[in-house]
Amino acid sequence: MNDACPISSRSPRSPISGETLDRDRLTRLVAEAADSTAALQFDQCDFDGADLSGLDLRRARFTGCSFAEAVFRKTQLAETHWTSCRARQADFEMADLTDARFTACDLNNTGWHRAKLAATHFAEVKLTGAHFHEAQVLGIGFRDSLLAGADLRGMSFRKQTLAQLDLRDADLGGCDFRDAVFEGGSLRDANLKNARFDGADLRSVDLGGLRIAHVSQFFKGAIISHDQAATLIGELGIRVL
User: Fold this and answer.
1) Which residues, other chains included, contact 18 with Cβ-Cβ below 8 Å and sequence gap of 6+?
2) d(Cα 212, Cα 228) in Å, to the nearest integer?
3) How far is CA 192 from CA 53, 93, 98, 121, 235, in A?
4) What pLDDT was estimated at residue 221?
5) Which of 240, 177, 184, 180 is nearest to 212 (CA)?
6) What average pLDDT does the segment 152-169 reach?
7) Cα dihedral across residues 16, 18, 22, 24: positive or negative
8) What is the pLDDT of residue 227?
9) CB 144 within 8 A of CB 123
10) Residue closest to 127 by CA, chosen among 98, 90, 175, 161
11) Which domains, from first to last, does the chain contain?
C-alpha cells in the first residue's frame, strides 16, 4: 500500500520565464496549478501595470520580475518569495503577505494600506516613500533596507535588532522602539512624535538633525554614545573637551 504524499511535500515545477503576463494569463496559470502541491515560479517576467487583485498566489516564487504599478488589492500572497524584483508604486492594499519574504527588491513608493504583514521579512530592499499606514505588522522584520521618507506610523519594533535601516525623513510617529537595538542606520530628520525609545540602544545610529529638546522629549531612557552626546551638546554652542 502506497503512502499518500504529505501536503507539506512540494515537488519542484518548471518556472515560467521571460513572459509578459496579464490578469487573464495569470488566472489560467493559477487554475492549472490548483490541484498541485508545487508552487508557481516566475523568472524574469513582466507584470507591469497588471491588475492582480484577489488572485490566489500563495507560495509563489518571483525572481527578477517587474511589477511597476501593479495592483495586488486583497491578493493572497502568503509565503511568497520575491528576489531581485522591481515593483515601484505597486499597490498591496489589504493583501495577505503573511510569512512573505522580499530580498534585494525595489519597492519604492509602494502602498501597504491595511495589508497583512505578519512575520513578513524585508532584506536589502528599497522602500523609499512606502506607506504602511494601518498595516497589520505583528512580527514584521527589516534588515539592511532603505526606508527614507516611508510612513511607518504606529509600528512596533519593540525588542527587535534593527540592522542598517536608513530611516531618514521617515514618519515614525507613535512607533514603539522600546528595548530595540540599532546596528547602524539612520534616524536623521525623522518624525519621532510620540515614538518611544525607552531602553533602546542608539549608540551606532545616525542621529543627525536632532536637538537637545528632541532627546529629552523622545529619547528618555534610551542609550546613546559619548560622541552622540557631545554632538547634541555642541548644538547648544558648548564645547566638550
Assistant:
1) 43, 44, 45
2) 11
3) 34, 25, 28, 23, 19
4) 82
5) 240
6) 96
7) negative
8) 83
9) yes
10) 90
11) 18-24+39-146 (2.160.20.80), 154-240 (2.160.20.80)
pLDDT number for residue 224: 85
pLDDT of residue 214: 61
Neighbours of 241 (CB within 10 A): 3
Chain-centroid distance of CA 65 in Å reads: 18
Structure confidence by residue, pLDDT tens digits, 71-126 = 999 999 999 999 999 999 999 999 999 999 999 999 999 999 999 999 999 999 99
Place of cell 494569463: 25
- The Cα–Cα gap between 22 and 19 comes to 10
Residue with cell 531602553: 199
Give the predicted TM-score (pTM) of the model.
0.87
**Using CA atoms, how far apart are residues 31 and 12, in angstroms rounded to an integer?**
17
Q: How far is CA 180 from CA 54, 146, 153, in A?
A: 36, 18, 16
Residue 12 CB neighbours (<10 A): 8
- Listed in sequence order, the residues at least 6 apart from 207 whose beta carbon sits closer than 8 Å to its beta carbon are 187, 188, 224, 228, 231, 232
Interior CA angle at 162 toward 160 and 166, to 5°? 150
Return the amino acid letter for 15.
P
Handedness of CA 43, 45, 48, 54 (dihedral sign): negative
What is the DSSP pairing of strand 61-63 with strand 41-43?
A: parallel
Q: What is the mean pLDDT of residues 188-216?
A: 84
Q: List pLDDT tens digits, range 46-62.
A: 999 999 999 999 999 99
